[in-house]
Request: fold
Amino acid sequence: MATVAKILQVATGSLSLPGKIIPFWGFTDVFVGNPQNPGPLIQATVGDQLIVGLMHNYIKFIGEPLSIIFPGQENVMVRKIPWGPFIYEPVQPQYSLGKMISLTNYLDEKQDIIIEYSFTATKPGIYLYESGTNPEKQIQMGLYGIIVVRPVGYNILDHHNHKTAYGAGTNSGYDLEKILVLSEIDSIMHNNVRPNVYYDMLKFKPDYWVINGRSFPDTISEDNTSSQPYGSQISCRVGQRVLLRIINAGFQNHTFYLGGLVGRVVAEDSFPLKTQSLDATYEKTGVTLGSGQRMDIILTPTTPGEYYLYDREYHHLVNNDQFPGGMMTRITVNN
Amino acid sequence: MPVIDLWAKDGYLSTPDGNSIYFWGFSKSETGPAQLPGPYIIAKQEETITVNLYNKLSEPVSISFPGQPVVTVGGQPVQPQYSDGQLLSFVNHAEPGGMVSYTFTPSYPGTFIYESGTNPHKQVPMGLYGGLVVRPADYNPNVKEYKTAYGAGTNTEFDREYLLITGEIDPDMHQTVEEGKPYHVSKYLPRYWTLNGRCAPDTMLMDHVDYLPHQPYGSIVMGQPGEKILMRYIGAGIDNHPLHPHGTHTRVVAVDGRLLKNGNVDLSYKRFTVLVGAGQTYDQIYQWDGLGYTPQNPIPTTLPNLRNMGIGDAGWTMWSGSPYLGMKGDIPVGVVSYNEFGEYYFMLHSHEELQITNWGEFPGGMMTWVAIYPSLSHDVGVLK
Ligand SMILES: [Cu+2]
Ligand SMILES: [Cu+2]
Reply:
């Protein structure tokens, strides 16, 4: 059981969308580095102790209270330097004058240097981490990322959990894994949000739909070192088991369609559907995910060729009202 | 080998509030009307089928068959189509005036959608979609154990079956297309919600009524007490719709054309409401048994006064005047009762109630009836 420590900072940066460059707020794990969307991927193994720190950014600070919540994780503890608490205590919603101002303990950049959240990764799966302070504004501005927790032995060749998402006996064995984070972006909002100024979220009207922070065709570009580092193009061979880890980080529902192919849903919200007593996995051509929901799907293509994976809510397949665009990526199947 | 010809063309839909809406749809023949939804395709498991698409529209059109393992065109698996490096279609398409021929062998029985794979943000809401039903290899409608949705022994026997395809219509968008103006999906705002291409109360009319030439399919669900009624839902629109019938719950036996069963474990489940998601299908068994009340075994209660039963104001009712199936009783003077045979009517509708209006006027939209008759011909509830 190891300790996985990740020190994050929040910074302002710019996102490149087809036809537009807009400001955003994001996490970075490089000291005073450029932020990214989604935030840096945090990877752990069951049993690991996770410490996620959020550090004051002296150079590119936003100036709003900042925090991180960890949906799906239990017993999250917190400490703060230099004003305490110094010893870890359970996270709590924060109030000011009787009004809730944060879903969890937050970093006040006027006085705090770092806030550290800590918890044990107890269950395998994919999880969101996201802002817990002014979340209606901060999450849309880009403050979300993914934690992957893998079963013990997933990377050990002869281990019964080798290359499984949820361990042996859960029908979650895979040859290739791809994390697909769905969200939507309101470019007008991004251009108008100011730190510590109220923004009327009733005006929220997204005009870009993204996978891993990118709109098609940028989704099928390689991973890179930009502020949108994660591509979502997939290449596999016939018969390979592709694990699609789909997570909805946005505010709207999205229907992720498997491009005419049929996949098997092996976990919902990181609960494996196959247990010792019951195999409740099932096959689908597409899945509808509400905000914050996750699904793990195993896709095993049998015919070589190209297939598009897309939001079946077709009005999300455009950039500036033009098809093709938006929430779409591609899988290339080779012989 | 079965061959289905589909012609992509345009036409006009009619809505109960008197609107006439330009649309694109599939037709069974070159001279026939475009229809919404497209013609039902009934195929058989393991039997190769060819679908010829003739394109009479002014832009490329294609058909994708989600859930069918290998669809071929000219002997090769279908592939995305590009124009100047830009994605144009998810699968091979027919140019305007041209045709394309798709061939596939369904390996699974079930309920599937077929829909345009070209400019789908426009062509699918414009009406280029339909339902595909694949019969199990052992299907035999004359033998009870073999009249099933998913094959003998799968607990999917049925007595009658109905396809219910949901959709939405934004009349402004349709007009934009008719006028050849740019189509801005960011302005998408549906004002009509359809079952099998019709808005209530037209949903309650029979199939193939003369005055709805482009909307041939009704969606009234009819059966007898105790019968297993198979309802096949298809979400063809781009929104999700929470559908439920009244009267009893349904048992969901399959989703997206895949039986909910692993090995010997039956994973079917009962639901009051099913959220019909975009592009997804749900097969359910509806079985209404009633409580066996007759005048000889009367309901142990006092019935409310007719005036308190909310009938009469509109001049019509779906109440027979009697609480007993197959009986008729007193109806206020001047009120028309539609219960010709003393049948029961239960609503089946979207529980997102804005969607049971026609442009905001109730009743309308995504709503129909389940009608339970004391006895009913075997010809009713047969998919052709
Ligand atoms: Cu969407
Ligand atoms: Cu209801």
Remarks:
- The domain at 3-171 of chain A is CATH 2.60.40.420 (Immunoglobulin-like).
